[in-house]
Amino acid sequence: MRFEALIAEIDKLSPTKANVAALPSVLAVTRSALLKRRETGGEKQLKTLGVFAAAVAALFVVGFGAGRVINLVRSGELTMASFQISTPQAQAAATPTITPAPILTSAALERTPWREVAARIDEAMASQIETRAAAGDADAQTLACLGHMAGAGGLLPSPTAAREQCDLASAQNNAAALYLSWQLRRTAPHAGIDDATANARLRQAADAGFTAAQIDYAASLPG
User: End-to-end distance of the chain based on CA atoms, in angstroms?
Assistant: First the structure.
């Protein structure tokens, strides 16, 4: 009850809104602080633990929201064992956490040159992209267009196949595909996309707020 009351009071002082995505980083920072070695001494250690307990509560309220923290406490999913100070032996035996690599999406084209994005596509990823593209996934169709443009991974170099995939994704108003259509016109004029279509798609992508398209569209304006 006192822990819940503490959280509620800290929440009143919190200048930020609850951010669920911040929880992993908050946990990492909190555990790192708790795992630091402390000097021995009864009163000093108790005082230090009290300060850390308040810090833990503050971090969780700011990063995760008071309501969620209280619910976790009540349900038993969050306990003080979550922040237990491990012994040196436990620290030595601990296995470092490995964060999985993010899944490649067409949004990567917004701020990264398309050739660099294409270089990340391997054969396994290409197979997944083709499966998703065949099912009508606009994001996968955009990546398939990119893969055929660059001949990445297991995707056959084919401007025509690239144009077909970009057409499918553009029909779904995928901003990355609209932008890539313009790039395809520049790199492979024989792909089957005319200037009018390519320029219209570039402007459509820019209007949608796609950063790379906005830059290239601005550069294409006369004067």
Answer: 68
